[in-house]
């Protein structure tokens, strides 16, 4: 019982540390510089004919000169074809050159062969970008000595428990991401809102060293960058650059998605990231064990403390992301069972992604 209590103490201190780090990362206010940075927006896609129009429509609303950005769509063997129309900015479509076990890394590497701009931004086909996305990124780049920027992602939720469970989970991940940067221990980001200079990507030798892992085009590149030049990697905390995407609509798709995300953890180069992952896993496992091995009143008390600490980080994230918080208590009760199952399955099982099966 003492061991379980110690694990929960370490868990609580870790989350409180992330809350402190989150507060240290200040929300960025643009100084409205004259646009200067040229961007290539890279979007790997497979069978996204339904989602791509909304992304393209949001790009037409950007308050950024169209001669300063281009969109490169990398088609990863889509079975359904998408017809490109005239949207008022440059669009290129290339076919993915598959050479590794990672479709997205291959797609980005393929696009890099034709990129002529100074900066690259990756996002996903099912995303909507905010109007001031590029102008705020440009302003930050002009006013800071930076080569790589991580940004926020949020869900456009419906009313279902499934959607809000995903958002609360994503809010905790966004909180951990921002909090780790505030502690100068950044280890995680989201490829749906990730920017870096082409020269920095080349200096890092791209994805070399982790292309055997199907996902991780964002996290592994970030960790390699921080190991190479930590002062050049920053988090841009701004509502103006927060990307909106769609939650999945069934539990199986969500499970496979989270398994894919969790599968990267064992290959982390960041010791802080690995350690935090272990603490979070053990913390959730401990909650389950408490229900079987500790007096129920004591167990409920400790579970209540964990829920309260988790809520502190989640509520901070949701306030920043301008989201309402629903089903928090119910999600918090179910989450340990979900998280432990996902973590264990990610080590031993396989998952489906874009109509393909990947084995760990």
Sum up the structure in keywords:
11 helices; seven-stranded mixed beta sheet; 360 residues; single chain
Report on this structure:
The protein is α/β, with parallel strands linked by helices and 360 residues long. Helices cover 48% and strands 14% of the residues. The protein has eleven helices and twelve strands. It has helices at 2-24, 52-60, 103-112, 133-143, 161-182, 198-203, 219-228, 251-262, 271-293, 296-320, 328-348; strands spanning 39-45, 69-75, 90-95, 119-122, 127-128, 148-150, 153-155, 194-197, 233-235, 243-245, 350-353, 356-359. Helix 8 packs across helix 11, helix 9 (271-293) packs antiparallel against helix 10 and helix 10 crosses helix 11 (328-348). The model has no long low-confidence stretch (mean pLDDT 92).
Brief write-up:
With 360 residues, the protein is α/β, with parallel strands linked by helices.
SSE order and pairing:
Blueprint: H1 2-24, E1 39-45, H2 52-60, E2 69-75, E3 90-95, H3 103-112, E4 119-122, E5 127-128, H4 133-143, E6 148-150, E7 153-155, H5 161-182, E8 194-197, H6 198-203, H7 219-228, E9 233-235, E10 243-245, H8 251-262, H9 271-293, H10 296-320, H11 328-348, E11 350-353, E12 356-359
Parallel strand pairs: 1-2, 1-4, 2-3, 6-9, 7-10
Antiparallel strand pairs: 4-8, 5-10, 6-8, 11-12
Helix pairs in contact: 1-5, 1-9, 1-10, 5-10, 8-11, 9-10, 9-11, 10-11
Outline the biggest β-sheet: 7 strands, mixed
CA-based shape: globular
Helix content: 40-55%
**N/C terminus separation:** 34 Å
Give the ordered list of helices and strands: HEHEEHEEHEEHEHHEEHHHHEE
Question: What is the total tally of β strands?
Answer: 12
Rg to the nearest angstrom?
Answer: 20 Å
């Amino acid at each position: 019982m003492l061991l379980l209590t110690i694990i929960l103490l370490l868990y609580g201190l870790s989350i409180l540390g992330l809350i402190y780090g989150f507060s240290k990362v200040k929300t960025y206010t643009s100084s409205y510089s004259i646009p200067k940075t040229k961007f290539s927006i890279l979007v790997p896609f497979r069978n996204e004919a339904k989602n791509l129009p909304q992304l393209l429509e949001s790009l037409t609303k950007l308050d950024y000169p169209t001669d300063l950005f281009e969109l490169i769509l990398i088609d990863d063997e889509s079975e359904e074809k998408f017809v490109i129309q005239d949207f008022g900015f440059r669009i290129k479509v290339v076919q993915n050159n598959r050479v590794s076990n990672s479709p997205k890394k291959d797609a980005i590497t393929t696009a890099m062969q034709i990129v002529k701009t100074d900066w690259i931004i990756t996002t996903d086909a099912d995303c909507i970008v905010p109007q001031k996305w590029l102008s705020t990124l440009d302003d930050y780049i002009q006013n800071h000595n930076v080569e790589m920027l991580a940004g926020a992602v949020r869900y456009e939720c419906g009313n279902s428990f499934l959607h809000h469970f995903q958002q609360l989970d994503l809010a905790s991940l966004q909180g951990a991401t921002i909090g780790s940067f505030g502690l100068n221990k950044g280890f995680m980001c989201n490829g749906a809102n990730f920017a870096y200079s082409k020269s920095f990507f080349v200096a890092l030798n791209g994805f070399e060293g982790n292309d055997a892992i199907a996902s991780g085009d964002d996290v592994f590149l970030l960790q390699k960058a921080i190991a190479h030049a930590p002062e050049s990697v920053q988090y841009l905390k701004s509502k103006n650059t927060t990307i909106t995407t769609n939650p999945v609509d069934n539990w199986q798709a969500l499970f496979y998605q989270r398994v894919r995300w969790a599968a990267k953890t064992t290959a982390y180069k960041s010791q802080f990231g690995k350690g935090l992952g272990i603490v979070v896993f053990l913390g959730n496992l401990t909650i389950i064990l408490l229900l079987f091995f500790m007096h129920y009143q004591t167990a409920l008390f400790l579970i209540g403390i964990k829920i309260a600490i988790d809520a502190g980080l989640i509520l901070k994230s949701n306030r920043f992301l301008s989201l309402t918080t629903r089903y928090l208590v119910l999600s918090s009760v179910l989450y340990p069972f979900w998280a432990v199952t996902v973590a264990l399955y990610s080590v031993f099982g396989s998952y489906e992604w874009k109509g393909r099966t990947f084995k760990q």
